[in-house]
Structures are given as C-alpha cells and as structure tokens.
C-alpha cells in the first residue's frame, strides 16, 4: 500500500493537527495530538494518533512511526513540502485467536 501525506495542518484545539493521507487512492483524515511527558526529570514530546489512525496502522508500526515523526517535525516548526510520499508498505492483518481454545494435534 502506497502512503502519501497530502497535508498536516493545525486543528482548532491547541496541540492537535489534522493529517490528510492517501493510502493508495483512498483519502483518510487523522487527528494527531502533541503532548509532553516527564521521564527521569526530562520533558519529552509525544505524538498520539486518533482511534482511526491506530486502527488503520495497527499492523504496520513502521508506517505509523514515520507518520508520527512527520507530525512531530511539523509541531516543532520544521518546513515540510507536501505531498510527501513515504513509499509502499505491506499491511498484513494477523488472524485473531483465543488462548482459551483447546488445540488438538494429531500425530501419526
């Protein structure tokens, strides 16, 4: 699946951004949130995606990290020239299974 970021713009709420992304030919809008956290006395920036973002990229952490990094760069005031093509990524959905199910193995 080819990922192209069409735009990142500040949203109405402080610290939030609207990201418009093409996944192949399908356009998606995600709301990203910039926050900070204190770890060992250091303040570090954090970027979080909305529920739609998390569901869309749950099986491809490499793609989501690249999108988080772009949002972080935008949040820090870096100049980004859109559109930005991130390339092709594979989205493999892992079959869900239950740990409580009994598995029978036949050995002959």
Summary of the model, kept short:
With 108 residues, the chain is an alpha+beta fold. It has helices spanning 51-56, 61-75; strands at 2-10, 16-23, 26-39, 42-49, 84-88.
Provide an overview of this structure:
- The chain is 19% helix and 41% strand.
- It is built from two helices and five strands, in the order ββββααβ.
- The chain has a five-stranded antiparallel beta sheet with strand order 4-3-2-1-5.
- A hairpin with a 5-residue loop joins strand 1 and strand 2.
- The protein is globular.
- The relative contact order is 0.22.
Write the layout of secondary structure elements.
Blueprint: E1 2-10, E2 16-23, E3 26-39, E4 42-49, H1 51-56, H2 61-75, E5 84-88
Antiparallel strand pairs: 1-2, 1-5, 2-3, 3-4
The shape, in one word, is globular
Summarize the amount of helix as a percent range: 10-25%
Poorly predicted sequence stretches spanning 5 or more consecutive residues: 94-108
| Mean pLDDT metric | 86
- The spatial strand order of the largest sheet comes to 4-3-2-1-5
Strand proportion, as a percent range, falls in 35-45%
Structural class: alpha+beta
Total count of helical runs of at least 4 residues: 2
Number of strands: 5
């Amino acid at each position: 699946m080819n990922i192209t970021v069409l735009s990142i713009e500040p949203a109405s709420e402080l610290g939030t951004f609207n990201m418009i992304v093409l996944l192949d030919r399908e356009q998606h809008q995600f709301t990203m949130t910039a926050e900070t956290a204190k770890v060992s006395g250091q303040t570090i920036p954090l970027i979080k995606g909305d529920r739609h973002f998390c569901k869309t990229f749950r099986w491809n952490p490499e793609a989501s990290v690249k999108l988080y990094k772009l949002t972080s760069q935008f949040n820090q005031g870096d100049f980004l020239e859109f559109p930005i093509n991130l390339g092709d990524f594979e989205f493999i959905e892992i079959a869900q299974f239950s740990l409580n199910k009994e598995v029978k193995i036949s050995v002959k």
